[in-house]
Amino acid sequence: MAFEGLAERLQAVMQRLRGKGKVTEADVKEAMREVRLALLEADVNFKVVKTFINRVKERAVGQEVLKSLTPGQQVIKVVNEELTELMGGEQSKLVKSNRPPTVIMMVGLQGAGKTTTSGKLARYLSKQNHHPLLVAADVYRPAAIRQLQVLGEQLDTPVFSLGEKEDPVKIAEQGVAYAKEHHHDYVIIDTAGRLHIDETMMEELKAIREKVQPDEVLLVVDAMTGQDAVNVAESFNKKLGLTGVVLTKLDGDTRGGAALSVKAVTNCPIKFVGMGEKTDALEPFFPDRMASRILG
Ligand code: GDP
């Protein structure tokens, strides 16, 4: 289970605070020392941890909190609110263009789950009575196009492809034109990833972005890779500009660092999380629900 270690440790700290009729500044400091360690061990970016702890301390040692009737509860409430804020505060919804189709460009490194997530997103939108079109623009990874076509068949969602010999920019452009003609209200473009970030990939992605002017550029990253996921997000955002992040494999035993750091480090909101390999295992991301899950 994701976040297991972190949740367990934070819940133990919170439990101790909850029981106290009186909470002193020293109690808060001690609790925050433990929270700090738990976050660092969960692979949360150290700068993010520092800012977080300072914010909680600043608010929690205030008179209203410590002098209240339930000081322990109040401190926990502050931690919960700050954790929510850290992950983006409000839910960040998928943008909808007022001139359909809404174009969503999926980017990410190979193996992060980009193709799978493209299929999941198509299913998610179909469930809401939209008519998405999948566009197969990953012409490099062997079998990526076939993988998307199989997903499309499973989901009853059309897949636009020009094979693997065409220029991905042209595929993306023609895919969007096809969607307009055939009244699809969403277009999901599955682009090519690489094993590592490289200039050729970025140039290609930039060229696609310039050509089709997507409403969303969603980066798919693997939560299991912890701080690496955050570094990848930072690079993609600097070089390409992102509108959001999809964090995959949150069903695994990720320590949680990526989920807790991505927004603070890159300022890009997490829009969805992947919770499994099946096509229905995609959930919109709610920072407040995640914070409550972690704090118990
Ligand atoms: P791509 O190279 O980025 O297009 O990656 P794929 O979509 O082919 O996914 C790589 C692997 O990760 C596949 O085995 C997927 O089934 C798996 N995968 C993707 N998303 C998730 C997820 O949320 N949870 C789990 N457990 N596996 C996932």
From TrEMBL:
<dbReference type="GO" id="GO:0048500">
    <property type="term" value="C:signal recognition particle"/>
</dbReference>
<feature type="binding site">
    <location>
        <begin position="108"/>
        <end position="115"/>
    </location>
    <ligand>
        <name>GTP</name>
    </ligand>
</feature>
<dbReference type="GO" id="GO:0008312">
    <property type="term" value="F:7S RNA binding"/>
</dbReference>
<comment type="subunit">
    <text>Part of the signal recognition particle protein translocation system, which is composed of SRP and FtsY.</text>
</comment>
<keyword id="KW-0687">Ribonucleoprotein</keyword>
<dbReference type="GO" id="GO:0006614">
    <property type="term" value="P:SRP-dependent cotranslational protein targeting to membrane"/>
</dbReference>
<keyword id="KW-0694">RNA-binding</keyword>
<comment type="similarity">
    <text>Belongs to the GTP-binding SRP family. SRP54 subfamily.</text>
</comment>
<comment type="function">
    <text>Involved in targeting and insertion of nascent membrane proteins into the cytoplasmic membrane. Binds to the hydrophobic signal sequence of the ribosome-nascent chain (RNC) as it emerges from the ribosomes. The SRP-RNC complex is then targeted to the cytoplasmic membrane where it interacts with the SRP receptor FtsY.</text>
</comment>
<feature type="binding site">
    <location>
        <begin position="190"/>
        <end position="194"/>
    </location>
    <ligand>
        <name>GTP</name>
    </ligand>
</feature>
<dbReference type="GO" id="GO:0005525">
    <property type="term" value="F:GTP binding"/>
</dbReference>
<protein>
    <recommendedName>
        <fullName>Signal recognition particle protein</fullName>
        <ecNumber>3.6.5.4</ecNumber>
    </recommendedName>
</protein>
<keyword id="KW-0342">GTP-binding</keyword>
<keyword id="KW-0733">Signal recognition particle</keyword>
<keyword id="KW-0963">Cytoplasm</keyword>
<feature type="binding site">
    <location>
        <begin position="248"/>
        <end position="251"/>
    </location>
    <ligand>
        <name>GTP</name>
    </ligand>
</feature>
<feature type="domain" description="SRP54-type proteins GTP-binding">
    <location>
        <begin position="269"/>
        <end position="282"/>
    </location>
</feature>
<keyword id="KW-0378">Hydrolase</keyword>
<keyword id="KW-0547">Nucleotide-binding</keyword>
<dbReference type="GO" id="GO:0003924">
    <property type="term" value="F:GTPase activity"/>
</dbReference>
